[in-house]
Automatic annotation (TrEMBL):
Protein name per its UniProtKB record: DGQHR domain-containing protein
Domain DUF6884: 7-142
Native source species: Myxococcus virescens
One Pfam family matching this protein: DndB
Domain of life, per lineage: Bacteria
NCBIfam families attached to this UniProt entry: DGQHR (TIGR03187), DpdB (NF041060)
Amino acid sequence: MSTALRIALVGCGKAKRAHAAPARDLYTGTLFRAHLAEAEASCQHVFVVSALHGLVAHAAQVEPYDVTLASMARSERDAWGRRVVEALARIYPADSVELHVYAGAAYVAPLRAALEESPREGWTLVEPLKGATQGARLRVLSEARRAREATRAAPPAKVLRVAALRVEQSPGRHLYLFSVDGKRVPEFATVSRVRRADGQLTGYQRPEVLSHIAAIREYLESASPLVPNAVVLAFDSRVRFEELAPGAEHGHLVIPLEGEERAPGFIVDGQQRLAAVRDALVAAFRLACVAFITDSSGEQAEQFILVNRTRPLPAGLIHELLPTTHGALPAALETKRLPAALVERLNQDAASPLRGLVVTVTNPLRTGRTPAAWRGRTALLKDTSLLKSLEYSLSDGALYSREPQDVDAMVRLVSAWWSAVRATWPEAWGKHPSESRLFHGAGVTALGLLMDGAVDELRRCGEELTEELFRRELALVAADCAWAKGAWDFPAPTGRREWKGIQNTPNDVRLLTQHLTTLYRERCRSREDRRHTRKAGAA
């Protein structure tokens, strides 16, 4: 069976010269230039696929035009795909062909449809950068170009030898497991976004990622940091594995050290961890690494996409695990540890009115309208809503304290409040958020902030924080609430809003919170005025 002929099809670009030029020179966009360079380096024959002209030899003279596949009807795109495939079939009538398409989905779909409609023996379609965004494509292609240039350079004078374990996952496909001081990784691996200005490293990440790097760095500088997740690296063929004995799976990776600009490694995953290690005020910090060796930019792109599209842990699972942790955590998680512990206690303690009602990974949401459909599930209130209200209270509300944290006292206070809520609105309690906004995100947040106001008022008056007094405070606004029926009478310009019209959006949460807290403050002032009037009359 003959080896398939590798033919590259490079999608045209919107950016063009203002005058006629060879197809390979007409399109000036950065992505087109990068696609073309990779195609010319990896395939025997290269064509441009033009939205207007179809298949175009890359040396053919083409006038600038303004036609895109996106502007065509589906039938026109399908006809375009058939036209391109038929043109290729006339050029390569008897060959096995491997079509490498360097273009977006708008180009690939009609080409694939044409091949499926009229299958050609020995023809396959390959998308080397399938699923990659424009930024990811540019990144991978830039690294591929750099790797090609490096392989043509003189052998390095220095190498790094690291003990490694070779693992064969499938025939001919190996992973290499090793550890290395994270501060040394920039000597042999890089990312394409790195730039230098006046000799200084700059432009590495966006601001929000820089803040994440700072959080990791702070953790690395703590008493006993542990980073078990491995950095993933792609090496080009300049890196080799030397067995300690014939057929052995343990040995050494030999990594050439050619300077940052010609480094043989590409960081697939772990950029932020490596940046944090680089900047951390520690002499060294060893990291676990997993590497594979390939000169294929397509394989690098595939792994980059798979690693970086991995779904993060559900927030609910993180919240449920936080109370079990004891060591230092990044700041973003550290601030949630105490609220998460309070949520756990409120959901588990026998005396808590919220026992079993908070939705967590181990306590799933109750669904269905009848007890038979509930299958023993009782949870109705999203943990994120309760967690958020507790975070507010801990930072600047009823639970805020400069003294050492008394978790038991906090749980008693919050339990007393929600017991009062249950007693004040029994008809709205224990219902699905679609049937009652009391356990809805907006309701939980608003009631949490109302608790802060009520606690502040009771403390000002020197009164105890008991369920009985919380019920008295809630009675000031009880008749104005429409949790499960009726409507809310909001101030203008909002006006009257049916109870089901309240949504868990920032605007509605703000509206409901301000309405309840304003009503409560007004009723407290009226009550205070009546007290003063009675005292004056008695005098």
